[in-house]
Structure formats: structure tokens, C-alpha cells
Amino acid sequence: MLSKHNSRLSVLLGAAFLMATSAIGPGFLTQTTVFTASLQASFGFVILISILLDIGVQLNIWRIIVASGKKAPEIANILFPGTGHFLSVLIVLGGLIFNIGNIAGAGLGLNVLLGIPVSTGALISAVIAIVLFVIKDALRAMDTFSKWLGILMIILTLYVVYTAHPPLGLALQKSIVPDTMNVTAIITLVGGTVGGYITFSGAHRLLDAGVKGKESMAQTTRGAVTGIGIASVMRILLFLAALGVVMQGLPIAQDNPPASMFKQAAGITGYKIFGLVMWSAAITSVVGSAYTSVSFLRTMHVAADANAKAVTIVFIAISGAIFLLTGNPVTILIAAGAVNGMILPVSLLIMLLAIHKPAIAGTYKHPWILTVLGVIVMLIMGWMSVKTIAALMHL
């Protein structure tokens, strides 16, 4: 009985860390540093609002998927035939954009850590990610890989916070009463944490482990909140480290903001720590993006389902090839969060409509308070997406 409990706990933690480390990618590091440099202590308010929105999204989507026992595209196709394929296309495109940045970030991390060319580092990292999916017990290896690298990132960033000496009182004050609020920052953070494929990663992982049905709701809720908690801890630590640097009046380079921030905070040691954190963040996000994007593709065609490992390898290879042909990872990383934030209202609307259909929900009754919270988040993110699109059109 204890073994079964430990196994279930391991799966829940694996799903939580898969989701969190999928979110904590190069874009996560870049977005947090860039927005802290521009908003300073008031960025704490953006983080607080984004965490509340993240929880509203994740609790809804994880519970809906696990309760129905079906993956998101299957749910959408039952709701309206063809909708699942439409959702899959959105998620896979968003995942691909993210993964190009993830591969770039992995190459950049190894460049800082080992001094090898970024392109070589990207290639090595892509091969490591592919090997992880090729081995026999890929899902268990993915869980372990995500957990340990996630813990490592938090410990290393905590050290950098210590060396940066951020003004904690000011950060707390402005997190509640900000001097300014940036809508684009909120949608980018939410998009980078639970947008696009990310929030589905942990839920689909639970289904693959056999966790489903309304009897699994308590565990699912704990897993969902844990995932957001892990990602939020990392976001707050990065914010504090960057704030310490900014408030000292030290410059943050535009070509690689997080690397500059780590170096300003802790010298050459901080720079090397950045390399390890960046690589860890990037490689775990490559794994999460590939796994989740392919889980959507598998519902579109029997050939993709039967050859899931091969499709995953091709997905990673395409991401790496596009990066090597394009370049500029910083622009890609900021854009990825915004794009996935725009996908979020659509996917959340589909899930909320579906769970109130008996053919999907069965005997499960989705809590009305979660439905209301989900609708509020969907409307807020939809409004912010419209504003962001309008702003981009005027650039």
C-alpha cells in the first residue's frame, strides 16, 4: 500500500515538475529579467497577478482533463468535431516557437559554461533530449530529469539572490501598491507559465500514468498547485536577483539580459551559474515542449500515435534546425510567451464548455467557483490579448 502511495506521489511530483520546468525555460529567464529592468520593484505586482491567473487556469484545465480521462484534443473533438484538431495546431505551433527558443537557450547555456559555440551547444542539447525519449522507460526518466534539474535551478538562483542584495521591503511594498502596471508583461508572464502547451504538459502526464477519474481530484489539485508553486518560486527569485542589480544602478546588457544580470550580481561565478541555470531551464523545456506537443499530434493521426518516439525526435530536430537557420533567441523568447498567452483564452474556453457536457464529464460535477474563476481569467486574458495585438499592429 505504501509502495502504491509512493508511486502515486512520484507521478504527481513528476507531473508538477514537468509543468514547472516546461515553464522555466530560457524565455522565462529572459522575460523576468527584461521586465524587472523596465518596471523595477513594481514588477512584483505583475508577478502576483500572474500567479493568481496561473492558478485559475491550471486548476481548471488539470481537473477537467483528469476527470474526463481524455486528453485535451479528444475533449475538444467531442465538444465540437474538428475543434480538437484546431486546438492541436495552435498548441503545436506555439510549442514549436517555444522549442526554437529552448534549443537556442540550451546552446547559449553550454556556450557560457564550457566556451563552445552556441550552435554546437544547441546540437549537443538536442541530442541529449532525443536520447531521453529513446531509452526504454522514457516517462520515468523524464520525471527524474525534470525534478532534479528543477531543484538545481532554484538552489543556484537562491545563491545569486543572496549576492545581489535586493531591497526586500521595497519589493514587497510595490508588489501590493505598484507605481505602474504593464498589461503586456502580465500576458507574457501568464503565457510563459501556463499558456500554450505548458499547462497541458502535467495533465497529460497524469493521464499517461493512469491517473484519471473524479476520484483523483484531490491529488490532481495538489499537483496543479505544486506545479504553479515551483514555477512561482523560481520567478520570484529571478525577480529579486534582477531587482538587486537594477537598484544598484548596474547595467543589464540587451543582447543577453539574464546572463548580464547573473554576472553583475555574482561576478564570473554568477556568469557560470547562469550557464548552468540556462542550460537546465532550456533542456527541461525542450523535453516538456516536445512531449506535450507530440501528445496533441498523437490524437490527430494513428500514425503519429503509433510512432510517438519518432515524431518526438523529428519535432526536436526541426526546432533545432530552425534555430540554426534563424538566430536572435532573445526576440524569439519574448514573442513565444506573448503568442502562447494569446492561445490561452481559446484553449480555456474550450475546456470550460466541455466539462459541462455529460458525454465528457460523466458523473463529475466541476465546481462552479472554478468555472467562474476560469471565465474571469479567460475574459481578462482575452482582453489583454486584444490590447497586445492592437499594440503590435501599431509598431
From TrEMBL:
One of its GO terms (molecular function) is cadmium ion transmembrane transporter activity. It is a multi-pass membrane protein. One of its GO terms (biological process) is iron ion transmembrane transport. Its main location: membrane. It is found in: Membrane. It comes from the Bacteria. The keyword ATP-binding does not apply. Keywords: Membrane, Transmembrane, Transmembrane helix. GO terms for cellular component: plasma membrane. InterPro entries: NRAMP_fam. The chain crosses the membrane at residues 39-57, 78-100, 112-135, 147-165, 185-207, 228-253, 273-294, 306-326, 332-355, 367-386. This is Mn2+ and Fe2+ transporters of the NRAMP family.
